[in-house]
From TrEMBL:
<dbReference type="GO" id="GO:0030973">
    <property type="term" value="F:molybdate ion binding"/>
</dbReference>
<feature type="binding site">
    <location>
        <position position="49"/>
    </location>
    <ligand>
        <name>molybdate</name>
    </ligand>
</feature>
<comment type="similarity">
    <text>Belongs to the bacterial solute-binding protein ModA family.</text>
</comment>
<dbReference type="InterPro" id="IPR044084">
    <property type="entry name" value="AvModA-like_subst-bd"/>
</dbReference>
<dbReference type="Pfam" id="PF13531">
    <property type="entry name" value="SBP_bac_11"/>
</dbReference>
<dbReference type="GO" id="GO:0015689">
    <property type="term" value="P:molybdate ion transport"/>
</dbReference>
<keyword id="KW-0479">Metal-binding</keyword>
<feature type="binding site">
    <location>
        <position position="155"/>
    </location>
    <ligand>
        <name>molybdate</name>
    </ligand>
</feature>
<dbReference type="InterPro" id="IPR005950">
    <property type="entry name" value="ModA"/>
</dbReference>
<keyword id="KW-0500">Molybdenum</keyword>
<dbReference type="InterPro" id="IPR050682">
    <property type="entry name" value="ModA/WtpA"/>
</dbReference>
<keyword id="KW-0732">Signal</keyword>
<protein>
    <submittedName>
        <fullName>Molybdate ABC transporter substrate-binding protein</fullName>
    </submittedName>
</protein>
<dbReference type="GO" id="GO:0046872">
    <property type="term" value="F:metal ion binding"/>
</dbReference>
Length: 242
């Protein structure tokens, strides 16, 4: 039983949880825990927060949106597509990550001259990409490396580029290297969090076709803010609201 809620019969269709790509590993663990303690099934839909927001505006039948920022869910709220204001469930951190042996102790203009290409998520649609661009701008690196940048659709695709060594170096979420699947892969370094705005991540219940979200969707949404989920998020490299 999750959060003191009783169990309902299994729905004919699963809850659809639209989730920012940086949350892939943590969300898989969250959903497994949720399904093990309820009779509610969930489908995970991954993508950049911007693309998922566009799909929701176009009527995609998602039940819950777990974003990588607050801006996109707030936009949906203002469009009357959610039931409440977005609520922060976690805050993320940026890291440098490489599979090609790039020295990460001192990242600067000179050290990056030896790097052929650098992957970041698209700043226009992915909050972690926007944070990466802000960091690179604030540290006076953007202009000198802009020609080397490879823009991925999402953090998920950014990770694919880095892990497969398609690029020498990339900027991604700390949560990625904290996942058991990625343990010991490559070398990484946490980026000074004062060089970019806080990455507060928000979740909302979707008002599909102006209809009230289902009881099952509300149960999952409440579960996102439980102590159980907070422990999972912290283990995966996120900071959580106290």
């Amino acid at each position: 039983m999750v959060g003191g809620y009783g169990c309902s019969p299994r729905p004919s269709t699963s809850l659809k949880i639209a989730t920012a790509a940086n949350m892939e590993y943590a969300m898989k663990e969250i959903i497994a825990e949720f399904e093990n303690n309820t009779t509610i099934d969930c489908d995970l839909i991954l993508g950049s927060s911007g693309k998922l927001t566009a799909q929701i505006r176009e009527g995609a039948p998602f039940d819950v949106f777990v974003s990588a920022d607050m801006k996109y869910p707030e936009t949906l709220f203002l469009g009357n597509l959610t039931t409440t204001h977005p609520r922060i469930y976690a805050s993320g951190q940026l890291i440098w990550w490489s599979m090609t042996g790039v020295e990460l102790d001192s990242i600067n203009k000179n050290s990056l001259k030896q790097v052929k290409n650098i992957a970041i998520a698209n700043p226009k649609t992915a909050p972690y990409g926007q944070a990466a661009k802000e960091m690179l701008t604030n540290t006076q690196l953007w202009d000198s490396i802009q020609a080397k940048l490879v823009f991925a659709e999402s953090i998920g695709q950014t990770n694919q580029y880095i892990e497969s060594a398609v690029v020498d170096l990339g900027i991604t979420s700390l949560s990625v290297v904290k996942a058991p699947k990625m343990e010991g892969k490559g070398n990484w370094k946490i980026i000074d969090s004062t060089s970019y705005s806080p990455i507060h991540q928000g979740a909302v219940l979707i008002r599909s076709d102006k209809k009230t979200p289902s009881k099952e969707a509300k149960i999952f949404y409440d579960f996102l803010f439980s102590e159980t989920v907070k422990a999972i998020l912290e283990k995966n490299g996120y900071q959580v609201p106290q």
